[in-house]
Amino acid sequence: MFLSRTQVIVALAAVGLALFVLDLVRRRKLSEEYSLLWVLATVVVAVLGFSTPLLRTITRALGILYEGSTVFAVGLAFATAGLLYLSVKMSRISFENHALTREVAFLRLAVQELRGDAAAARDRGNA
User: Mind telling me which residue stretches traverse the membrane in this protein (predicted)?
Assistant: First the structure.
């Protein structure tokens, strides 16, 4: 089985990315939730990079002319799906942030009203 230079580069890059992701998880800079997706994607790309018959089969099935393009198409599909997932997550966090900000404002107003009532009661008691 002969591997082209592109396959070797892609496979080694995928292995390097997997090791980098694992290091980020170890240093607690990436949560396990996202690391599983990254490790899965790098394993898929590495398998495609090292397995020429599988890569050719998928390339023919998709109607792509060059095997290297299949690997990059898989990576692009993963990146697009990842960006969409992160956009949905950021939107949800933004809505939650707005709700929390509103709630803190109402609580701050209630505290100020209670302090105002207490100060007014003290003033009435002193007079």
Answer: 6-25, 37-58, 64-86
